[in-house]
Amino acid sequence: MIRLEHFDPDIFLRDYWQRKPLLIRAALPDFQDPLSAAELAGLALEEDIDARIVETRPDGWGFRQGPFGEGDFDSEYPWTLLVQKADHYLDEIAELRQLVSFLPGWRFDDVMISYATVVDGMGAGVGPHYDNYDVFLLQGQGSRRWRLGQVCGEDEALIDHPDLHILEHFEDSAEYILEPGDVLYVPPRLAHWGTAESDSLTYSLGFRAPRLNDMVSRSVDAGLETMNPEQLYHDPPLQTQRPGEITPQATAAARQSVLKELEAFTDSSSWFGELVTDGAEQLPPLAVTEGQVLQLDPAARLAWRELPEGLEIYANGDSLLADLNQLPGIQTLCSGESISAGQQLNLALARQLGEQGCFTVSESDE
User: Fold this and answer.
1) How many H-runs (helices) and E-runs (strands) does the chain carry?
2) The domain spanning residue 332 has which CATH number?
3) What is the pTM of this model?
4) In what order do the strands lie in the sheet with 183-186?
5) Are 136 and 217 part of one and the same domain?
6) Strand partners, 192
């Protein structure tokens, strides 16, 4: 298990998480890159990899979407290669999740890797921007200068570019040069701008939050399945009405009726766990056998909650109920460690999760 040095999770959660940035010097003092720049470029050649290149040009920004060919990395301009979901393809990258295991696992999205070059003294970057994510920026080889800016609103002005989310205005508030093993935490909507000081690799560990409109939609859909369709609106105390009028009292009564129903089924439904574990990828099922050593697939999403009637497990957008004594095995899986089917996890439950595409076979069992 790898841990951040010079770092107190409790202080971080109290003072920094979703509030303000934090620089952690020498967080991984002996950090060695899990892959080289050449290996990252090789990954970007593959058909199913989400990769892009951003060029820093004197007259603006260049953009190319992968997959790439080998000649795509030859440019007269500084360029940055970005590869999304690298942790889904390389176990060594997936292990970096352990650095942020003190945070809710169901909020974790992926590890993106960026490789930025320096050409004729000019460093590459992707421009000033903000994310709706919480991001931990782990510096690998080389060094990168990070400038922090303003907290951005939804109407923040962007440059006119069809593919890039680059701010038109940037207000400097802090500046750091990250060396290998340093980590910078950037909360959501805080503008930031990274520029290579030397050819460099950066690992971005991102945490997503569910959109409120998706939450409302899921909760309403779940509630409608359990509601009695014969329930009707009840009038508030009435007075003589003017013809055709909808009174403020009627509107308030309608709103209170809806809120009462929402509160009733929001507390009892599985919709939230299903929403936050619902990934876009269709993962292949695995036929689990007795004694098989299994690990959670890096692309899978697994979460749980403890209920009076047992353990409710959420796996890739679906939910199922299990005995509470299965919790140690589920926690082991969520921590990234392997389990033995039929021993640390009930075989029937392991097979259900296997059908949901949750597992890969551990190397120790191959």
Assistant:
1) 8, 19
2) 3.40.366.30
3) 0.90
4) 22-24, 183-186, 134-139, 200-207, 108-116, 79-83, 51-57, 60-65
5) no
6) 129, 148
Residues 102 and 9: beta-carbon distance below 8 Å: yes
Contact indicator for 303, 271 with CB cutoff of 8 Å = no
Which two structure tokens, joined as six digits, stand for 275?
């929403």
In tens, the pLDDT along 206-240 reads 999 999 999 888 888 888 887 888 889 888 888 88
Q: 186 and 220: one domain? A: no
pLDDT digits over 296-328, tens only?
A: 999 999 999 999 999 999 999 999 999 999 999
Q: Hunting for tokens 């009733």 — which residue is that?
A: 264
124-158 burial string, b = 16+ CB within 10 Å, else e? bbbbbbbbebbbbbbbbbbbbbbbbbbebeeebeb
Distant-in-sequence contacts of 106-110, Cβ < 8 A, 24+ apart: 106/273, 106/276, 106/277, 106/301, 106/303, 106/314, 107/134, 107/207, 107/208, 107/209, 107/276, 108/205, 108/206, 108/207, 108/208, 109/133, 109/206, 109/207, 109/208, 110/84, 110/85, 110/86, 110/206
Do the beta carbons of residue 198 and residue 250 sit within 8 Å?
A: no
Determine, yes or no, domain membership for 287: yes
DSSP state of 152: P
Asked whether residue 126 is assigned to any structural domain, the reply reads yes
Rounded to 10°, the helix 212-226/248-266 angle is 80
Residue 226's domain comprises: 212-235+245-269
What are the backbone angles phi and psi of residue 10, rounded to the nearest 5°? Answer: -65, -45
